[in-house]
Amino acid sequence: MLHFTRWKIIATLLTCLAGLLVALPNFFSKETVQSWPSFMPKQQLTLGLDLQGGAHLLLAMDQDEIKKDWINNLRDEARKELRDAKIGFTGIGTQGLTQLVVKLAKPEEQAAALKALNKVRQPIGNALLGAGAYDVEVSSGTEPGTIVIKESDQGLRQRVANAASASIETINRRVNNLGTSESTIVRQGADRILIQFPGLKDTTDLKKLIGETAKLTFHEVHPSMSGDEAKMTKVPTGFKIYPGDKGESSGEYLLREQPVVQGADLADAQPGFDSRNGEPVINFRFNQIGARKFANFTKDHVGRPFAIVLDDKVLSAPVIREPILGGSGQISGSFTVEGTNTLAVQLRSGSLPTKLTIVEERTVGPSLGADSISAGKLAGVVGGIAVVILTILYYGTFGIFACVGLLVHLILTVALMTMIGAVLTLPGIAGLVLGVAMAVDANVLIYERIREELRLGKMPVSAIDAGFQRAYVTILDSQLTTLACAIIMFWLGSGPIRGFAVTLTIGILTSIFASVTVVRLLISYWLKAQPKGRAIYVPV
Amino acid sequence: MLMRLIPVFKGFDFFPHDLNLPFMKVKGPALALSIIAMVVSIGLIGIKGLNYGVDFKGGSLIELKTKSGNADISALREKLNSIGVGSVQIQEFGSPDDVLVRLEEQPGGEAEQQAALKKVVDATSETYVERRVEVVGPAVSSELRMTSFIAVAAGILAIVAYVWFRFEWQFALGAVLALSHDVIVTVGIFALFQFEFDLSTVAALLTILGYSVNDTVVVSDRIRENLRKFKKMELNQLLNLSINETLSRTILTGMTALAVLISLYVFGGEVIRNFNLAMLLGVVIGTYSSIFIAAPLLGYLGVKRDWSDLAAKAVATSKTKAKA
Question: In terms of CA atoms, which chain A residue is nearest residue B139?
Fold first, then answer.
């Protein structure tokens, strides 16, 4: 065990040297590191949100809303396909949020209707599943003359996934306006989105920006019936009652459900002021398609009102005085200056497919982060010194070797963490320090064993050899069980705890090399350096 | 050359190696004590309940620091009690200018939590700065409770499977009892003193599992070795010998771990104090359980005495290694 081949010595030394090089930038400030020559590694450990300060927001999408939008679209499409195929139907009803039931006027048109309705299916783009998978299934219902359109689980999964990626894009565009440093926005689980924003001091703006879906639509107002009248009698087909944006007092409007133009057709939106009364307004401009749609609509509806609807609430319902052909306009409401700024950003970056609710928030101010770093450093240094004193006091010269091993262990752990881009959190620092205490256990096992063998009367070299050999299995066993715990912790992990698990795992991996191999190499060198011909005195 | 510069001195081996403490003689009372401790802990958890942190209970935690001077907690309490966010818990946190405000989970769903947080921030923004905000909604808190429970159970199972694979079922049973004991008693102490129980406590529990099984495996390894060495020795005597032989290592490693943890507890800051507290308790309890539960249990369960087959194989492989 004490003999090292030449290549093994070189490999061990090279590993230590490489580790030192990679870990080195972490011990200097960013500016110092930047001034180093180009061949030096410059990557530093990323600090977790709890150390550098920042915000962590977990958002949940509203799955029911996604389903509702989907089923509404599906109904419109089904209606259109049947009309195009000139098949009469008496109604299309929804059943729950996953199923549509079409009642045909003539049951004998079943086959033709099925064929027409099959067009609403969208193939699910999955190369592995191959063709044949659709987001909805169209089949004959149990009663004659009915057709059931049922959403599949895969279809729903894809809808949710699409909504998630669309939300992430939209949030990305919106938060870019905050002008702060790099944020990460990722999907988590099926219907959650995680936003991490290092360095963000105040989350108020962020929450405001993501708090609204900002779905802007322009609707035709019912020519003769008001919202209140419709409520009393019957809402005409294709129309829907919308509330005003100021609650009860602002009344209700009866609008055609299918919008004339949607927010997606906006080319630009800017905050501004009304030239007449100086109130804050939003100036907007449509793209070509939107402008054409809006021009056609206003041409046909001069003298009648249209409604500007934001997130299903009517902002205003001005009367069209003359056709608006230029494709630009102004939205007024009871806005504040701040409100128009936020809304303009939201409109420019597009609407969110669904409302997002904050289900978890963790924000750390930069001052607490800095305090935590210095507390972690102090605790680490004091704990480290305590371990070093204990080890050297108890194991003498070999204790010094163990401490060298611990230093290598620490350097390699930091180096590996830097290399894989791990994030250092406050529990991570605790993990690092605790890792040192656990790494020293390997040396304790070895040295106790050596002492035991010496007490049994073994010769020094063979006692040392036996110490390493016998302890090795035990070390491996105990490290592997700890590894199992660390991996489970990583799986459980949210944020800081994951950081702890990562440092613990890396610490275990490096400790076998640092506390066993490196220390063994040191001891074998020390043995060689002993004067020949005299009995060796084992300083342990 | 360099090696000559290193001072050559023996360490101070203060551990009395010929102690030979009669651990196995007290195995009955020790096991009984451990079982009583577990039962009492479960009772405490059931009766007093755990003081769940926001991670598990839901609600909000807001750490505030005064803009200047010390915090006036009673004024703050009066103010926050009047803004309609339910019961508010306020305590000093680490230093007199630092306070921790806790809100219970607000009824009505996810959005209500944010609304309550905003009320508190608005009410305090004149005199305080927010240092830390944690808001956990009802959906996430119940998920976290679930995953934490699964994680601890999975941790114990994974370890037991490993011990079973490496040793024998008796060892695995000893390990599972010892580990459950560590977790249950630590949680029991948290219930007794109503220490806050949150995600970091669970992380500590998992680390304790790792640490405790470390001890157990070291002792088990020695037992297995001695089983091969002393084929005729009476089992209780052999177990006692194994515990005593590894005792110096158990104590020393425990001491280094405690030294580090005490340092983390004292200097590591308020934020991870709770984690360190659980770890401190766990290291002590874990060390106890490896000595007094895992190994003595083997005395009751009995263990395979003939390891010659394995031993022969091991010798054979080491010989081939030596030749190579």
Answer: A359
Contact A318, A301 (CB under 8 A): no
d(CA A433, CA A442): 15
Domain-located, residue A197: no
Q: Could B261 and A434 be called an inter-chain contact, meaning their C-beta atoms sit closer than 8 Å?
A: yes
Residues 33 through 62 of chain B touching chain A, CB cutoff 8 Å: none
The H or E element that residue A198 is part of is strand A192-198
- The beta-carbon contacts of B158-167 under 8 Å, at least 24 apart in sequence, are B158/A484, B158/A485, B158/A488, B159/A481, B159/A484, B159/A485, B159/B209, B159/B213, B162/A480, B162/A481, B162/A484, B163/A481, B163/B213, B163/B216, B163/B217, B163/B220, B166/A477, B166/B217, B167/B220, B167/B224
Asked whether the beta carbons of A517 and A445 are under 8 A apart, the reply is no
ipTM of the complex: 0.86
C-alpha span between B37 and B46 (Å, rounded): 14
pLDDT score, position A486: 82
Residue B78: burial class (beta carbons within 10 Å; 0-12, 13-18, 19+)? exposed
> How much is the average pLDDT of A147-175?
87
User: Is residue A395 a part of any domain in this protein?
Assistant: yes
Query: Is the same domain home to A386 and A339?
Result: no
Is residue B260 less than 8 Å (CB to CB) from chain A? Answer: yes
The answer to whether B5 contacts chain A (CB < 8 Å) is no
For residue A477, give how far its alpha carbon lies from the nearest alpha carbon of chain B (Å).
Answer: 7
Contact yes or no for A398 and B110 at CB 8 A:
no
Distance CA A463, CA A529 (A): 18
**DSSP codes of every residue in A512-532:** IIIIIIIHHHHHHHHHHHSPT
List, as ranges, residues 168-197 from B with C-beta within 8 Å of A: none
Residues A447 and A525 in one domain: yes
Residue B259: its pLDDT value, please? 93
pLDDT score, position A125: 63
Looking at the complex, does the CB of residue A94 fall below 8 Å from at least one CB of chain B? Answer: no
Range of the domain at A485: 6-53+365-529
Classified as helix, coil or strand, A216 is: strand
Nearest CA in chain A to B147: A492
**Residue B212, CA distances (Å) to A365, B172, B245 in order:** 36, 13, 18
Q: What is the pTM of this model?
A: 0.82
Question: According to the model, what pLDDT value does residue B20 have?
Answer: 87
Chain pair A-B, CB pairs under 8 angstroms: 249
